[in-house]
Amino acid sequence: MAARYAELAQTIVKEIAAGQMAVGDRLPSEVEMAGQRGVSRATVRAALDIVESLGLISRKRRSGTRVEATAPTPRYARSIATVEDLVQYAAETERHVKHIEEVIADDALAARLGCRPGQRWLNVRMLRTETGAGPAICWTEVYLDAAIGRRIRRYVRQEKGLICDLMQEKCGVVIVDITQSMRAVKLEARMAQHLGCEPDDAALEIRRHYKDGAGRVCQITISTHAGDRFEYGLRLTR
Fold it and tell me: Is 93 a domain residue?
């Protein structure tokens, strides 16, 4: 038998889907709902946690709990542990390039990228979605070594697949090492707009540094994923 909070969560999801609560409607308080449903406040809180994780409601202090959608928000789940996984990820998604420009790293950008101030990069800003006009998965900023970037710039918009594969095909640059780090961040307003989220919403930032055989960093990517529609899996064995 399912736990009481799970049953309550399922009931609320069904009620929202059936139109008993419309988008924008405010739900009763936890205390009121506990009395109406004949359960404890802790059970209500746990049930609402589940419903919120599905993207159906939002809970904010003072403004209460409101219905945000009638169907669960799609979540993109991906396990990336090898370069082959990255290739598959690129095959399953589409990039939509929004802006390309050459930049010179000032102190702030150099600190963000882990490079020296004054270094030149080709900056590619793009939105990645599921193939077939699916929902937005992430906002990505790519920084390419300027010399390499100038040679492949015109191909970035035209061709699919990984940009690091373009570097190998067009420039003979072979990436042999990719380091990755992740951290929790708040969405900046410019990213939130592209992802269909609110500024300061929770997000996951994934940074990757791509190095060639000489240890030179040829590419840096910073991908920001909306926290409610992306799961990242990693399997550890021993």
Answer: yes
| The token pair that represents 107 in the structure block | 């102190």
Measure CA 164 to chain center.
Answer: 20
pTM above 0.90, yes or no: no
Beta bridge partners of 154: none
Which residues neighbour 160 within 8 Å (Cβ) at sequence distance 6 or greater? Answer: 90, 91, 94, 95
Q: How far apart are CA 25 and CA 37, in angstroms?
A: 18
Task: Determine the structural domain holding residue 25 and report its residue range.
Answer: 2-67
Domain stop point among 20, 38, 67: 67
DSSP 8-state secondary structure symbol assigned to residue 28: P
Q: How far apart are CA 158 and CA 135, in angstroms?
A: 21
The pLDDT tens digits for 81-122 are 555 555 455 556 788 999 999 999 999 999 999 999 999 999
